[in-house]
Structures are given as structure tokens and as C-alpha cells.
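Researcher: We're teaching a course module on how sequence relates to structure. For the next exercise, students receive a sequence and then see the predicted structure as C-alpha cells, so they can try to spot secondary structure elements on their own. Here is the exercise chain.
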Amino acid sequence: MTVVQRPPLLALRALLALLALALGFMGNMACAKEAVAVGEEPWVEARMLHLSEELRCLVCQNETLASSRAELANDLRVEVRTLVKQGKTDTEIKEYLVARYGDFVLYRPEVKPVTWLLWFGPFAVLLLALGLGWLYLRDRQKNTAQHALNPAQRAQADQILNRTGPP
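Model: And here is the predicted structure for the students to work with:
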């Protein structure tokens, strides 16, 4: 009778784990993109970076254009870079993007009648909540003062609460 030698189970598991890890890395390499080339002119890149810090990613909505990794953000960065190379001023670029995408594209929108709700709305809601809380507490204080127990009611409540036997 011959005994078949099996590889130890632990070694087999380690080999499978290494194989899975290698395949995982290869999958990531297949999906990797080329690094975006830095422009030939450093002043264009510096200005584009400054502008993209002041613009909002339309997909992420809570990130600047500079920090977003969304495809649309990349397209907008290319568009901003093109406008900078065309010699447009920062104001002209912002006006162009606001005309195309609305005030939402600005990370810090200007204070104007259209954006008053955006700027002052949270403070109005806070004041409204404080006012309603004050009214509620004032009304509650009046109601508790009206329902105070007279001495006879207090004595009856003490008698009921201090009973030791069954009711």
C-alpha cells in the first residue's frame, strides 16, 4: 500500500493567498490611467490650480475642482486650462463657467439677491428655531404655573404615594 504525500494545507492556503494578491495588483495596473501631464508653462498650471481651488466639482458637490477625481472635474480642469492659455482673466473664466453651469460652480458664490438664501438661510433657520424654542418654553412655563397643586390636592397625592398596602 502506497501513501500519497499531500502538500501541507497551510502552505497551499498561503500559495492561494499570494496568487490572489498578485491577480489583484495586476487588475489595478490594468485599470490605471496615465498621469496627467503638467503643462509646458508653469504659470498656466499655477493659475489653473488657483482657479480650480475656487471652483466646485459639479459631480462631487462638496469638493473643489482641484481635489475631485471625477471625469467631469477632469474635463472642467482641461477647459479652465484652455481658457487660461487663451489669455482670459480669472474673472472672465469664472463668468464663463457661471453662465454655463450657474452660481453653483463657484465654491464661494458671490453675495447677491439670487444667493441670499444660500448665504443667510442657515442663520434665518437658526433664528427661527431659537424663537420657536423660546415660545415653547414660555408657554410651558405658563402651563406649569397654572397646574400647581393646592394644599388639599398635595395632601391627597402624598397619601396615595405613601400607601404601603394594596390599593
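Model: If you want an answer key for the exercise: The chain is about 65% helix and 0% strand. The chain has a mean pLDDT of 81.
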